[in-house]
Amino acid sequence: MGTFPNNFIWGAATAAYQIEGGSRIDGRGACIWDDFCDGPDNCVGATGEVACDHYHRLEEDIELMKQLGLKAYRLSASWSRVLPDGRGPVNQAGLDFYDRLVDGLKDAGIEPLVTAYHWDLPSTLQKELGGWAHADLPQIFADYASVLFDRLGDRVAYWLTINEPWCIVDGGYFHGIHAPGISDVPLGYRVGHNLLRGHAYAAARYRASINGTGQISLAINGGSRRPASDEVADVEAAERAMQNFAGWFADPAHYGDYPAVMRQRLGDLLPDFSTEDRLLLTGSMDYLALNYYTSDVIQSAPGNGAMELEVVAQPKLEHTEMDWPIVPQGLRRFLCWMSKRYPSLPVYVTENGAAMADVPDEAGYVDDQDRIAYLRDHLAAASDAVADGVDLRGYFAWTLMDNLEWSLGFSKRFGLIRCDFGTLKRTIKASGHWYANVIRAGGLEPTEIETGVVQ
């Protein structure tokens, strides 16, 4: 079988706004994605008002997880479902929902991994304070996270504070294509700084709480940055790209400050951490939670931006429906780079998956052999990383079911389970059945590992 430990955690992941629905009932407040999707030309006309209606189909979805044989399920809590205005009185109906979900998972023998923040800031905090740009948001976030720790922490052993801060900044503040739809680079770096502070404060609260006996981290998205040639300039540019991407948020959460190359090249765009913040940040990850989808080829480009590099196209590679090159061995390189830079931390792949052009038959079944190939090749690469010495302990496929793909609405499908967005009928795809077999076997068959693919 594949080179995975006997106690390896096989899971799948989702996010609250993408699947829950129920956005206007039971006391839930609005979030910035509600506002963004209500805007003209955003989210391809879709909203999270219904999504997959997971809020009302909790038991059905847990039963589907059991059919897949999942050992773990990564979910996120909706901040505005728990605290409608982001702070103040708790919405007990909202908190009760997550209580039922966690209990249902535990009863099914499925370990919950809970993400406190997966991009859905309460609208009130954005409108009244300017969102994550405000210096008080990290403490307000820690207050919210503490509500989750106090209610769920007796049953949840794995926590993530914030999902993909890089995406929050890049999509929401550099380019304005994600909520809150702002295009302001200096503001984006300040937001990134406060996201890190929010993670540090929440992690400190967890460790000091009565339920703080589990593990906590934040989810870092990234990929390998392979040099276009063996020339020193390209090799150095690729390393700068790695540190400016994954290192942007992992370095402070492990070492207490940004990578030196970012400090040198970005200057005043990066705020300084206070002494207290540095102390709280240092060692604030109990494990590496890594989200991987693709990798880039980098070449040196003097004068092109602060990092003086550019991405080289990879037209010969197959691409997903997101137009992302499929680079399985990039996962191996990414895991090895992260494990070397942040030693002694166990590693979990907390997201990995592919949007494909699914074509259902009349019964709604999808024979998605392309997605199976993607998952197979990436698991083979993960197995290679284990052989390289990476302490990889778990893998979460993205995603459990087709859902609202943020600004792309329902136009892209990543799921192991098809969701018919008209009827909300769930149908396990071929990839879901394949993944269930992998879980039962504890890894890939030898013939699946030896793909011979080199990227």
Description:
Helix 8 packs antiparallel against helix 9 (185-208) and helix 13 runs parallel beside helix 14. The longest helix has 24 residues, at 185-208. This protein has one domain: TIM Barrel, CATH 3.20.20. The mean pLDDT is 97. The protein has helices at residues 16-19, 32-38, 58-68, 79-82, 92-107, 123-129, 137-152, 165-174, 185-208, 232-255, 260-266, 275-281, 328-341, 369-387, 430-441, 446-449; strands at 9-13, 72-76, 111-117, 158-163, 215-222, 225-227, 288-292, 296-300, 309-312, 347-351, 392-398, 417-419, 426-428. It has 16 helices and 13 strands. A hairpin with an 8-residue loop joins strand 8 and strand 9. The chain has an eight-stranded parallel beta barrel, surrounded by seven helices. The chain has a three-stranded mixed sheet with strand order 6-8-9, covered by helices on one side. It has 455 residues and is α/β, with parallel strands linked by helices.
SSE layout and pairings?
Layout lengths: L8 E5 L2 H4 L12 H7 L19 H11 L3 E5 L2 H4 L9 H16 L3 E7 L5 H7 L7 H16 L5 E6 L1 H10 L10 H24 L6 E8 L2 E3 L4 H24 L4 H7 L8 H7 L6 E5 L3 E5 L8 E4 L15 H14 L5 E5 L17 H19 L4 E7 L18 E3 L6 E3 L1 H12 L4 H4 L6
Parallel strand pairs: 1-2, 1-11, 2-3, 3-4, 4-5, 5-7, 6-8, 7-10, 10-11
Antiparallel strand pairs: 8-9, 12-13
Helix pairs in contact: 7-9, 8-9, 13-14, 14-15
